Each structure stands twice: as structure tokens, then as C-alpha cells.
Amino acid sequence: MREINIAESDIAAVTTQLKQISSDVSTPTGPEWSYPPAVKVIDCVLSLNRKYDTFVVPRLKTFINNHPKTQRVVELAKLMASYRTPHAFVKQELNYNHEDRARTLDSVVKYLCTVIEETKTIEQEKDGLTQWAIKSKPHDYQTLKIKGFGIAGFQYLRMLFGADTTKPDVHIIRFLSDILNRNLSATESLLLLEYA
């Protein structure tokens, strides 16, 4: 990742704005923060560029109802492997006919399985994924080389597993761009928020 220099004046402007709205910001309490690891992974990949409440939530609820025992990422990997292709799994289990998104989900699940390969219980898996999320850095998404899974998806996955960071989605980028009165990249937005 190329080095991005963040101006002190930009950090100060964002910090001032964040202080002004800090009393309006609360800790997230939605169900996505307490989903089991397998569901968090589906949540993360399905939510990429999709409306969360109308598209993602109904699919997650259906998956949870149909597969209440699929809690761990390794269990999700086994369930996915029982289908002819990742696309067949996503079509059948998530009611989503999107081959590229299916490949992305498959790649993310396989990657996380390497992170937690020594775990034997759901608690060990959760601990392993939390440690991974905290130790990972935003630019690490590049090492995964997963098509369709950029910095926003990577950051959201880290957040779901306990990292204290943010996801540079269109709303965050727009918010920061408005403060500074110029267009910002996702990476620049993320770094600016972390500094602030």
C-alpha cells in the first residue's frame, strides 16, 4: 500500500467535528455483533454494496433458522463444501444468484479457516478470530487477494470480530469529504478517522 500522508489540519478538522457529534454516537447493539462466527462471515460478504435491512437481514434470519447448528466458520466451510459449487450454496441457502459473490464468500471462509485451523470449540474459534481482527492492519486486505473483497469488506469483518476500527464505506467517505470539502479515497478516509 502506498504511503498516504495525512495533514495535521485535516486531522484537527475531523477531530473537531467528531467531538461535536460524539454525544449522538452510541455503541452498536444490533444482532450482527452477537451472531456466531459463521453468520458474521455471511453477514460481511452479503452486505457488500447491498441494503442491509432489506437484503442482508432476511437472508441471515433464514440461514439461522435453517442451520441453527452451523455456528463455527469451519462448520460453514463443511456445509458449503456439501454443495456442488459455492454458487449453488449461495443460490440455495442464501437465495442469492450471484456467482462472483459466492466465490468471494468461499474465499473468505477458506482464508478464515487457515486463521483458526487449530481451534476445536466455538469459544476457541471466537478467541482466535478476535485476536486475528485486533492484530490485522487495514492494508492486510491486499495480501488476501480476494476478488470483490476490498478494504471496506475487510474492515467490516475485523469490526465484526472485535477490532476497534471503522469501515470506509460510502457514508464515511462522504462524511469526511464534506468536512474537508474535497474527495477522499477509502484508504485516506480510514487513516484520517483512525488518526482523529
From the structure above, extract its key features:
196 residues, mainly alpha, 11 helices, 63% helix, 0% strand, elongated
Low-confidence stretches: none
Strand content: under 5%
- Sheet with most strands: none
Radius of gyration: 18 Å
- The best one-word shape is elongated
Helix content: 55-70%
Number of strands: 0
> Cα distance, first to last residue?
21 Å
Assign the structural class, choosing from mainly alpha, mainly beta, alpha/beta, alpha+beta, or little secondary structure. mainly alpha
What is the averaged pLDDT score? 91
Q: Give, in order, the helices and strands.
A: HHHHHHHHHHH
Q: How many helical elements?
A: 11
Secondary-structure blueprint:
Layout: H1 8-21, H2 37-46, H3 52-66, H4 73-81, H5 86-94, H6 99-115, H7 122-135, H8 141-144, H9 151-160, H10 170-180, H11 186-195
Helix pairs in contact: 2-3, 2-4, 2-6, 2-9, 4-6, 5-6, 7-9, 10-11
Q: How would you describe what is shown here?
A:
The protein is an all-alpha fold and 196 residues long. The chain has helices at 8-21, 37-46, 52-66, 73-81, 86-94, 99-115, 122-135, 141-144, 151-160, 170-180, 186-195. Helix 2 (37-46) packs across helix 4, helix 5 (86-94) packs across helix 6 (99-115) and helix 10 crosses helix 11 (186-195). It is elongated and about 55 Å long.
